[in-house]
Cytochrome c biogenesis protein (Catellatospora chokoriensis), 517 residues
Amino acid sequence: MSVTETAVENPPASGPSGRRTPRFVAAVWAAARNGWRQLTSMRTALMLLFLLAVAAIPGSVLPQRSVKVEDVQRFYTANPRLAPVLDRLWGFEVYASPWFAAIYLLLFTSLIGCITPRLRDHVRALRTAPPDAPKRLARLPQSAVLDAAVDEAAAKAALRGWRTVRREHADGTITLAAEKGYLKEAGNLLFHSSLLIILSGVGLGSLWGWHAGRLIVAGPEQVFCNTVQQYDDFGLGPRVGAGDLPDFCLELTDFRAEYRPDGMPVSFAADVTATDSAHGDLGRHTFMVNHPLRLDGANVYLLGHGYAPVLRYTDAAGVTQETVAPFPYTDPTLTSQGVAAFPDANGSDKTKQMAFSGTYLPTKDGPPYLRSDHPEERNPALMLTAYRGDLGLDAGIPSSVYDLDQRQLDAGRLKKYGEPKLMRVGETWTLEDGSKVEFVGTRQWITVSIRHDPGEPIVLTGAVLLLVGLPLSLYGKRRRVWLRLRPDGTAEAGGLPRTEYPGFEDEFRSLVERWQR
């Protein structure tokens, strides 16, 4: 048979590259195994944890769409060239970006791969008895030959708290093997498992959690219901829709604030009445700073409060309108500035719409009327400036309800109408055209943050386990000691610290002294 015929009758099992296939598979397998070892090492886990912290920095520096879309729009206006580049890099949605998710999942995988074999080894160590004493105890880091005979029962009593195993050998020698410090590895595993639990809770909260903010004014006509349309700002998780929000409404019935003589706040408390469509009245509740109102499916946190002047305007035709205008405060004494608008004043003529820009001072006895003397309402004053013209509300451009449209002012479509006027509660100001505005009084308003985070209890559990595991891993010391009792009455001992333990020499010496008593 020729060589050619042999090649035809016995072709390569895997084609022309058949000889290279086993070697290639082995190389791929070795590379994958080494990569997995590197990924699941503690050093890699720490690097990924640091990288995750670094990756979260852009989410703290740049405005995020999930927090406040208006801030992102303002960033686009201020940085028209930079903003599109950052947007393509997920700069405004950092925590939903693929690169942040990749780091998160790699860290998750690394921690699982790191913890699993160590947990298996720790369970095996707990189930395995301490090994028998080595033949030459003198070679251990700590060793001693005991001068006096040692009583076995007394030796066991001295090892109370140690995991001790007694072994009897054929020549009559008895050895006691004792080990202590298993809590160090247990604490280590608990610490790293807590990181895994915290990451799981954070991930669950980011997917199924939501948050929103709202300013609520006191009064039955100012009832707030938990819908997206009534939020001032909101952020919903990727797995949360507008229809998933819990059903409840809140009415602010009272607000109480206590201040020191120097104006420093002591306590805030808000009274609300809660209702829902299924059960009706849910009762009256009081909540304070750091003591949120806990409802089914949401927590309501009290963030701040202020005053909303109540103005009653009567136009030249005798038509009266009343508005409650929340004024945001500008300093700790609750000096507040805002706008009260009357877009329906003077009929349908947009050029005769009225608005009043004002500064509210809760306590002010005399000029200058620039800053309140105290945050509590003792002698309130309201400095008003009237404006007349097109307020720009029909332009379809989003604008703040707390400021006049600067575009209308610059274009001259909205002009100052008369001189500023200082008003006290109950006073009436008559304008040039015969219209009147009355300072009726004020109402309280509060700002609340409404949140739901299903991962919160998981994160709390992880944090508690972390605080428990960290001291155990830092202060726990794994060590072993052996005591060999010979038939002739002599004895020797040895000790081995399994981890770095500077105090082991003193502990071993103390054990030897107790054995020799």
Summary: Confidence is low (pLDDT under 50) at residues 1-9.
